[in-house]
Amino acid sequence: MSSSPLVPPEQWRHLFRALLRECTYLPDPIARGYMHDYVVQRFRRYSDKSQSKLQDDLHRQHRQHLLRKTATDKLSLLKRANEGYSRPLEKVLQLSYGRTGRKRRDLLNVFIVPEVPPDALAVEGILKKPSMFEDDWKPPTLVLDLLKSQLHNGVIPLLSNRPVVKTLEPPIPKEDSWGKPVAKIRRRNIRKQWYYDVLDSLLPPLPDAEVDTLQGLISGRIPWTPPKRRKAVGVPMDSPSQTSLDVAFLTEGPKKGPTFRDFVNGRPHQITRRFMQRLWRRIYCMVPRFEWDEKNQKHYFKWGSAKPFPQISTVVEHDQAPGLFLKVDANGRLIKQPSGNLLEVTMEE
């Protein structure tokens, strides 16, 4: 069997440049940086020649075929997102803001990292606790609090494609199908599967800098302009590639005219600020903020809303309180000011 790779280097170079080019046209500043780094890291990860030498030719060719398919799928996703298809663009935003994909897992690992015990007594207390997934084991408090907050938010299942876990405890039956107590190893496996399902469903908080950027884009505080796409250099009509018979023409026949095939799964939109604000608000609804409650002295999760609600109340400072009722009487009615004509008559008299 030939040792030459299935995909030539020129095709990898073409895919790499095309992916980076589409990343520069994304209409979101965070998405542009994240997807650029994502593409570069993926190509660097799978370009390790020392690892490829250890594989046989058949496995290497199969691996390159799968990687090329992944690259073409991501290129198609970025192209449709830049053309204004709402679903591909929202998927790119979810990847960039950590609502799905590898960034979500990285944010979740940072969020639920266990605290370092401050002293020897704390270390002894940790050692006395049951091992992970064993009987009397409890998941971290932050995980349960975030799960409760997500279950109370009815908007998240409509926006996110994450699996939903509706139980706060692992569903361990009291007896098995034979009427006997459930075995210890089965109880452990049920807890393990339930905990990993919970982690797969959680939406972790974003860093403060990215939340501030997202809020600024929604409110208009951060200036935004749609990226300008450079026009591709056209091929002259009298070139041999346009006039001669190629392989595609001989195998597939003449090309069709305009069809509705591109509009089966949505239609392209003109990327405007209003169009982007709708997508940004959908992402903002899936981002929890980890805040501190001064009254109850505990942390809680706060979620955004898809539509801005009118402000029906305001906070009054202590020095502003005396001036609130200066223009109303004892019954709460506005005090009528004397008109200008009445003042003129009084002056003449």
How many helix segments? 15
- Mean pLDDT across the residues is 83
Strand content is under 5%
Order of helices and strands: HHHHHHHHHHHHHHEEH
Secondary structure class reads mainly alpha
Rg on CA atoms, Å: 30 Å
Topology:
Elements: H1 9-24, H2 29-45, H3 49-53, H4 57-82, H5 86-96, H6 102-111, H7 120-128, H8 141-152, H9 156-159, H10 184-201, H11 208-219, H12 240-243, H13 247-252, H14 273-285, E1 289-293, E2 298-302, H15 340-348
Domain LYR motif-containing protein Cup1-like N-terminal: 15-108
Protein name: LYR motif-containing protein Cup1-like N-terminal domain-containing protein
Structural commentary:
This protein has 349 residues and is mostly helical. The protein is 49% helix and 3% strand. It has 15 helices and 2 strands. Strands 1-2 form a two-stranded antiparallel ribbon. It is flat and about 95 Å long.
How would you briefly describe this protein structure?
By secondary structure, the chain is mainly α.
Entry keywords:
2 strands, 3% strand, 15 helices, 349 residues, two-stranded antiparallel sheet, mainly alpha, flat
